[in-house]
Amino acid sequence: MRLRPILLRTILLLTLAVAGAHFKGAAAFAQEPQAPAAAQEAPLTDTPLDQATKEIEKAKVQLTALQDGAKQNADNDDALVGLATKADELSRAVITISVNLRPRFDQIKNRLAEIGDPPKDGQPPEAQIVADERNALTAERAQINAVTGDAENLSIAVTKLLNEIIEMRRRLFADTLFRRTEISVSVLDDAASAFVHEVSEFSQALSSWASFVWKFKRFPLFAAIFLSLASALILLSGSYRLFGSYLRRDEAIENPSYIGRLSIAFWSTLIRTLALSVLLVTSFFFLNSFNVLRPDIAPVIGALFGAIGLVYFVGRFVNAIFAPREPRWRLVRLSNLGARSIGYCLLAMAIVNALDYLFGTIGEAMGSPLVLTVVRSLIAALIIGLILIAVSFGKPMLAKNGDPDAPGRHWPRGLGIILRVVGAGLILTALTGYVGLARFIATQLIITGAVIATMYVGLLSGKAISRQESFADTFFASFLTRRFKLGPVAIDQAGLLVGLAIYAVALLVGIPLILLLWGFHVQDLQLIAYRLFTEVRLGGISISLLGICTGILLFAGVYLLTRWLQRWLDGNVMARSHVDLGVRNSVKTGIGYLGVGIAAIIGVSAAGIDLSSFALVASALSVGIGFGLQNIVSNFVSGLILLVERPFKVGDHVVSGTAEGIVKRISVRATEIETFRKQSIIVPNSELINGLVGNWTHRNKIGRSEIPVSVAYNADPQQVMDILLELTAKIPLVMRNPEPHVEFLRFGPYSLDFELRFFLADMGDGMAVRNNLRIEILKRFKAEGIEIPLPQTDLTIHRDARPALADAGKDQPNEQEKSADTPMQEEEQPVRQLRSKTADGNRKG
C-alpha cells in the first residue's frame, strides 16, 4: 500500500516535468518570430527586381537626354549618328532587363501552380503559411509585370526615337543634296574675292605651322613618318611575298590567260591601294597622336591624304583595267588610243573631284564663305560633265580586225547616248543651282564606279579560279603542290576555296566603301555589322550569326576531340589490354555517337537556338516516324541492340539468309558483310535482329573441317583410316583436343566412303589445311596402291538378229539395199544402250 503513494508522486512529478518542457518550447516558439527584427538591422542586398527597377529609372533618364540631344542636333549628321548608336545600346539594355526577370517570373508561375488556388467557400481552410506564401508570390509577380511593362514601354519609346533620328538624317541628307543656290555674276565676283582672301590666310597658317613644327616638333614629325613608312612597307612586303606574282606583269608572257589578267588586275589594284591607304592613315594617326597637327591644319592634312588616295586608286584601276601601254594585258576590247584617252579622262575626273574635296576642306578650316564652296563645286561639276560629253564622241572600241594600233570604232549606240545624257544632266543640274546634287553625282560616278568595277573584276577572278581544273595552272597552286604534296583533286578543291575567299574579299572591301561613299558613317556600318551578327530577326525568331558560327566551331571542336578520344582509347588503352576487336569496335562506336550527341547539344546551346521552338516540328516528326520512318527507327534501335548485346562483332564469320562472309562494320542503320568474293553486302540491322543469323566465330574461332574420301572395294578400311589419321597428325594447325577421327560412312555403289574430321583453332586456316591435306592423301594412296575408283557400269550386248536377217536376204534378192541397212541399225543399237547406261551410271555416281 505504501508503494501506491510513492508511485503516484513519481507519476505526478514526471507529468509536471513534461508539461514544463512543453511550456518552455511554446515560449521559445512564441519568441521565434522576433528574431528577424534584429536581422532587419543588417543591410540587405538588392534583389533582382530592385536592380531592374533602378535600371529602368536610369534608362528613362538616358532616354530623356537622348531625346533632347536629337532636338538640339537636328542639323548635325555626325551628332545624330552618335545619338543613334547610344539609343541602340539603350534599347538592348532595356531588352536585357526584361530577359533577366524572365527566369524569376517562371519560378513564381511554377510555384503558384504547385500551391494551387485558394480554397473556395465551404472547403476546409488552408494553412496560414501557404496563404502567406501565395500572397507574397502574387505580389512579386505583379511587381515583375509592372517592371516588364515599363521596360516594354521604354523599348517602344527608344525604337520611336531611333526612327525619328533616321528620319532626321534622311531629311538632312535630302536637304543637303537638293539645296538650291542662285548662280549669278555677283556670286562669281564674291567667290573670286573670297578665294583671294582664303589663299592669303591659308598660306599664312601653313607657313606658321611649318615653322612651328620644324622648330619644336621635328623629332615627332620624323618619328611619325618613320612609323608610317614602316607599317606600309610591312604590308607591302608581306603582300609581295604572298601575291608577288599577281602584283606585276610578266613581260615574257606573250599571250597571258584570262585568269592571269583578272588576277593581276584585281590584286595589284587592291594590295597597292591598301598599302598606300595604310601609309596615309597611319601617317595621320601618328602625326595627330604626337601633337604635330594643329586643329586648323589637321582636317586639311586629312583631306590631302584622302585626295592622294583617291587619285592613286583611280590611277591603279585605270592601269589594271585598260592597260594603256600593254594591250595583251587589257581586260576590255579597246584600242590603244581609246584605252589611253579613257584612262586619262577618268584620271582627270578623279583629280577634279579630289581637288574640289581638298579645297572645300581648306575653306571650312579657314572659315571661308559658303559661296566659295558652291562655286568650286560648280566648276568641278561643269568640268566633269564636259569630259563625259567629250568621251561620248570618241572611237575607243577595238577595230574589227583585232589590231589595237588600228583606229577604233565608236561606242555602242546606247552607251554613247548614256554618257551624253549623264554629262548634260550634270551640267544642267549645276547651272540650275543644285550644286550639291551635281557634286554628289560627279563623285559617285568616279569613285563608286571604280569601286564597283574593281569588285566586278574580283568576282570574275574568283569565278575563273574556282572553275574546275583552272586553279592548277596558278603559282599558288604550284606552291601548295610542292609544300603539302597535294594531288589534283585536292588542288581543285583548294581552288574552290580560294575562289570563295576572293568573293569574300571583294564584297567585304567593296560594299563598306560604297556605303561610306553614299552617306553612311563608320558607326552606321558598325551598327549594321553588330545587328547582322547578333540579332537577325525572322518573324518572332531572333537568330545570331555570331552565335551560330560559335556553335559550329564548338561542335567541330567537340567532334574532333571525340575522334581523338576514340583513337587514343583504341590505340593505347584497349590495344595494350588486348581487348577483343569486336569490343573495341563497340566502344569506339558508342563513344562516337555519344560525342556527336554532346557536340550537337553544345553547338545548339551556344548558337542560342531555343529548342522549344521546334516542338511543333518534333510533333510532326513523331507522326512521320510512326508512318514513314518506322523502318529507319527500327534499324536504329536494332543497331544499338547489336552494339550492346553483341551477338556478333566485327571480324566474325556469319551467315544470314543468302549472305555469308566477314563482318566489316556495324553502324546504327546497317551492317556491312564482306563475302569471300570481296563483295560488300549491306544488311539492315532489323533483319539481323529479327532473322536467323549463324555465327561461326561467336564464342571463339574453333571450327570443324571435313574431307570426304572414297576408295575401291579391294582396299583395307583399317589401313585407310590409319593413313588418314597419320597424315592429319603431321599438320601443326590441327587441334589434338578434340582429336581427329575418321568415320566409315557407307558402302557406296562403287566405293567405300570415309570422312576425315578434325578441328582447327582458327577457321580461317581451313581452306589451306584442307588443300594441303588432300594433296598428301593423294600421294600416300598412290604410294600404298590404294585406288580411288571411278563410276562403273555393267553392259550386256545381244547379237541374235544377224543370222535371221542373212537368211531373209537370200530369199529376197531384189531388196538388197533394205536388207543391207537393217543390220547396221541393229548394230548401232547396243552402242546407244552403252552410252545411255554409262550416262545413268555417272548420274548415280
Automatic annotation (TrEMBL):
Mechanosensitive ion channel MscS domain location is 631-698
State the compartments where it is located: Cell membrane
Composition bias (Basic and acidic residues) maps to: 797-820
**What highest taxon heads this organism's lineage?**
Bacteria
- N-terminal signal peptide: 1-30
Q: Name one GO molecular function term.
A: mechanosensitive monoatomic ion channel activity
Q: Does the keyword Cell membrane apply?
A: yes
Q: Which residues form the Mechanosensitive ion channel MscS C-terminal domain?
A: 706-788
Q: What keywords is this UniProt entry annotated with?
A: Cell membrane, Membrane, Signal, Transmembrane, Transmembrane helix
- Transmembrane region(s): 221-243, 264-287, 299-322, 342-362, 374-394, 415-435, 441-460, 494-518, 538-561, 591-609, 615-644
Into which family does the record put it?
Belongs to the MscS (TC 1.A.23) family.
- Name assigned to this protein: Mechanosensitive ion channel family protein
